[in-house]
Amino acid sequence: MAKKSTAKVLLASALISMTVGATAVAQSGRDYVYVVGSSTVYPFSTVVAERFGRSSEFKTPKVESTGSGGGLKLFCDGVGVDYPDVTNSSRAIKQSEVDTCAENGVTEIVEVKIGYDGIVLANALGAPAVSLTRADLFRALAREVPGEAEGELIENPYTTWADVNPSLRATRIEVLGPPPTSGTRDAFVELAMEGGCKTVPWIKALKSTDKNRYKAICHTIREDGAFVEAGENDNLIVQKLEANPDAFGIFGFSFLDQNAEKVKGAEIDGIEPTFDAIADGSYPVSRPLYFYVKKAHVDVIPGLRGFLREFTSERAWGDEGYLSDRGLIPMPDDERGEIAANVKNLTPLKLASE
Fold first, then answer.
1. For the chain, what is the radius of gyration of the CA atoms?
2. Which of 55, 217, 300, 319 has its CA 20 to 30 A from that of 186?
3. Tens digits of residue pLDDT in 183-203
4. Which CATH architecture does the domain made up of 118-287 adopt?
């Protein structure tokens, strides 16, 4: 019996060794960092990847723009060389996405906040300057808007900006924006649309009595042609704005900053979208930017730890860093220090249930 038990132990050990060996071989099948996700974070991630590739012995990381939601889906599909190491996101990861990750074996996720960005409504540089409120944006783009009676909702009847607000021009409402998979779209409906929606007292009261209806009213964009889904390609939006001076486009401040010779941002609630206004919090439509890392891939995928170190270095994301030259609004010194320490220690994201 003892010999049989010993044989079983040896067999089990051999199988484990074979599995570990096979895993090591599989992991060596990719010798570069693979990044997906947000189109807003894409330019920042790309410049870090290029600098890292030039200054290290590792290959330049591969960075793809898939949108925040699309990137998180790819990221959460599994662990191993067939799946991304990092996903960029212009919103925080949702609990439902954390749960999906866990179901697929992605159990330790490191969240890295990199700075701030503003969401702008921009038009062609030669077009008239515009000042809008969040209430204007809600009434222009919501699928349903308040009617004359208290508590009444009607299908959005507004066709021109003057219909929304008599002080605005009588030009047709045409806004080019990102698809539902985009973190920019998520942030726009939460910060701009909902911000305007809450100016209607009876809708604001719904938040505490019927949260689902409140969210449906405030977050649902009309589908009758006034809002045009333009995909994740912000360059295409800029081209269309140049061709049609009456149209507006939605994208991040960083992209506006990089295309200042072609487009300009509208004032929102009397505040112009500028680096300083976003940094001090006075611009009302701003949000943090992130990327997420699989702890299981660090020190397995060649160069991943170094890429993280480069991204969270002062020369990259600091007050005078090269990412601020690209439009990223840096976090305060103490916040950067805390997040950099979390990255160095690979501190996993704390789950809501913990």
1. 24
2. 319
3. 889 889 999 999 999 999 999
4. 3-Layer(aba) Sandwich (3.40)
